[in-house]
Amino acid sequence: MVEKTRFLKHYFGHDAFRNGQEPLIDAIMAGRDALGVMPTGAGKSVCYQLPAVMLPGTTLVVSPLISLMKDQVAALSAMGIPAACINSMLTSEEYIEVLRQAGHGAYKILYVAPERLTTAGFLRLCQSLSIPLVAVDEAHCVSQWGQDFRPSYLDIAGFIEGLPQRPVVGAFTATATDAVKSDIVKLLALRDPFCVTTGFDRPNLYFDVKTPRDKFGWVLDYVRRHGDQAGIVYCATRKAVDQTCQKLVQHGITATRYHAGLPDDERRRNQEDFVYDRRRVMVATNAFGMGIDKSNISFVLHYNMPKNIESYYQEAGRAGRDGSAAQCVLLFSAGDVQTAKYLINASSENEALSEAKRQEVRRQDMERLRQMTDYCKTSGCYRHFLLRYFGERSPERCGSCGNCTAKTQQTDITVQAQKILSGVARVERRFPSGLGTTLVVRMLHGSREQRVQQLRLDGLSTYGIMRDTDRMKIREYIDVLVEQGYLTQTTGSFPVLQTTGRAWEVLRGQTRVTYARREEQAEPTPRRKAAERRAVAPEDSLFEALRRLRAELAKAESVPAYVVFSNATLADMAVKRPADMVDFLDVSGVGEYKAARYGRAFLKAIQNWESNNLSRGDD
Length: 619
Hints:
By secondary structure, the chain is of the alpha/beta class. The protein is built from 27 helices and 17 strands.
């Protein structure tokens, strides 16, 4: 269809579809249900927004978060697509007005929270609307095996069934295992859906895991070195969010916070401060971010390890949505595992399930936690680990993650391994069921703590045998022995260390143990010296000028900066330097509506930059 390509350029400013978009759009336009699993930043929203423009009537988009609806409506309006949203934040007057306008067919796209689907006023509206398509965003929320299960999503299928005429149904998500995909199809009652999984790889993201002694010091140093970039710092608890945010502000960082314990108005204000670039760092729990459409997030730091890889990949994926290079760094410590276990055991999210189901969900959560912990401890490629988890084949080394780019030194730890394996073997003799890593480390280090003495671990011959070795280093050696198969760690709420048959090869001196130890290097600072600033590429200088203009326009219109144009569009603009409106429309991400709205201002800014810079021979 030539028409769909014309609409893509007219509204979204793109000359071609991204991977997976076109077949999904074709299926929907042909009247077939669809399931799209595409990574964050791959353009899922276009898969239902473009059909919505082309189809008669009003498309409904079920979305879990108010912030996502607001951002999407602002972005659509900026492209000339009439849209609105219905959620609990509307006043009675606003709600009535949206219903009235929708009833008159004023909107092509209407966003709605799942909880509103069963309200009387909305149901009455839907009886009179022509609804060609219902798109379910963040569709993994319907599955109890998904990391963001929301019971209200279970009402969607019944709502669709009650419409005067069944519309096409599209379901979209960024992270879904095979079990979750099956649940989406079943629980949303998709009929013979056309399914596309484009792959989970985000080549523009750099993944790394660090184990600093002082987490806050590391974060502060990182944020300072990335002084012109926006980012998110995720913490596991509300207390950690409050403390980390407060300390960053005390050190002069424009940071704000977000968690479920804050009043609604403060959460909304803080989120807007971040989205509108009034604060460049958001410190938050996992309550923040699903569906956040801020495209210029350059880093996501995890102060604590999340409970599962699905959550981690989704949260990390909020960086680099516009395709720009971005960093995702997880700060790991042994205490993170205990915190995650506590959060799993204390969760009340599945109270509506039977006891047997709850136990099965908890068992599944513990297994996913084990996989997350293995990711933090792997010496292999982080990208390969993540993609393999989601069932995707990839090279053993990506060449661009923390483990792949780090300098390594082959280190012989045979003596240390023999001490550890001997210690675990002696623990097994006294406690056949085994003990956890923490107690083994304390015993080897010669701890005088009460629990060690209660269990009489201080009476073992291996007690204190590694007194001169740092406890974190002992843990590192244990991780190596587990990874190489000399030790194993059981699953469940209280995992214990156990020797394997291979351990005796080391204890008898038949096998040496070596591993590639990472040599931590200081990250090069992004700040340029004076001489380097004079030699800056012309497009970098122009990019900054365009970014300043974008900020002024966004402030005047009270919209987030990325709603005007994304960083990627500004970068393309800076390289192409359009001289007139025809050239301006050739910039990626510039549609006809935005060109008419902003083109003159940006063309003038480019012209002024050229007269001020190129005349001096800087080009």
